[in-house]
Amino acid sequence: MTVTDTARDTVAAALEQGKVESHLHPTGSYDVADHAAPTGREETWRFTPLKRLKGLASDAVFNASTTDVSFNTPEGVRVENVTGDEAAALRGISGFKPATLFGARILDEVTDTLLVDVPAEAEIAEPIVINLVGENADNTEAGHVVLRFGNFSKAVVVLRHTGSAALAQVVEIRVGDSAQVSVVSLQDWADDATHLTHTEALVGRDAAYKHTAVTFGGDLVRMDANVRYSGPGGSAEMLGLYFADAGQHIEHRLFADHNQPKTSSNVAYKGALQGEGAHAVWIGNVLIRKAAEGIETYEENRNLILTDGTLCDSVPNLEIETGEIAGAGHASATARFDDEQLFYLRSRGISEKEAQRLVVHGFFNDLIRKIDVPAIEEQLVKTVEAELSKNVIGKSI
């Protein structure tokens, strides 16, 4: 039998059993014993430098936290660190069933949960801001965060990560029916920080969910962001901005699991890389299940290379189990500066370095405006400028 015949028989057998064998169909389990430590040979870990994770993905001890947590509490919103039975009841509220060892360990070993609870029909005018400030990059720790939004609610939550830490984290998000929710996760860590985080969102019927990941700091940051649906009509917009500097590893993995009909997802991530050894990884996974008729999805990733010596991996994946869809597509591009744009600017008396700076700002600005949180947008424009000032932009392009 040929290899081709063997593969065909394997697929046929899987279809007969009503499932498809791929990394988009992981078998989750809450039992820690069901998960092995990653070796780096797995599809979902092959780009991650495991030795730099300080054991967070495997056997690191989850010590008492040295990360300071503070927050505002707008009227009508509950923000609290809960323990005991209440914390236990929040495990898996998003439908999260761990497919990784670190995820299973967090749900099993971390006894408290940071809960943000927005009641049904509440409309919160100001962003709910959670500040997590790390104080020790050598202290391996873990955290569980739950954001729960009631039916017909409207709110914005900002998770702001700064300082020095070695943090493994699970963030669960439950979006009620017809709710309109925006969650912004800022990774503005110090240069020595390590952050391994998984975000799982469950979007209700006719609900609108926006998730924005912004990563500029840290030695190694890996964020998995998943979304599924608990009813038809739900929409998810997943945005991302990142800036990888010399020696920095930034990895974003997206998974839109269309398990309900007439749902939609739109993914747009943009990144810039500069400096020797800067490495950015973007994996965009979309699964359209057999039951998900009438869905629409699109994902794109754009990367701008600012200097020599960088590495970028961009991999979109689209798996479709039904032909009854409204539309599906993906795009990925990695490139240096656009010579025509630079020529246009320089022909008007603008220096090469200033022209490059303007191009980078233009590259990010359209995505920054989509975040729709004025204070965050203003901060990001300043952060992009600060990142550009670090670099020898123009010297090696």
UniProtKB/TrEMBL annotation:
Domain SUF system FeS cluster assembly SufBD core positions: 136-363
Similarity comment: Belongs to the iron-sulfur cluster assembly SufBD family.
Name the record gives this protein: Fe-S cluster assembly protein SufD
InterPro entries tied to this protein: Fe-S_cluster_assembly_SufBD (IPR055346), SUF_FeS_clus_asmbl_SufBD_core (IPR000825), SUF_FeS_clus_asmbl_SufBD_sf (IPR037284), SUF_FeS_clus_asmbl_SufD (IPR011542)
Organism: Nocardioides yefusunii
Pfam families named in the record: SUFBD_core
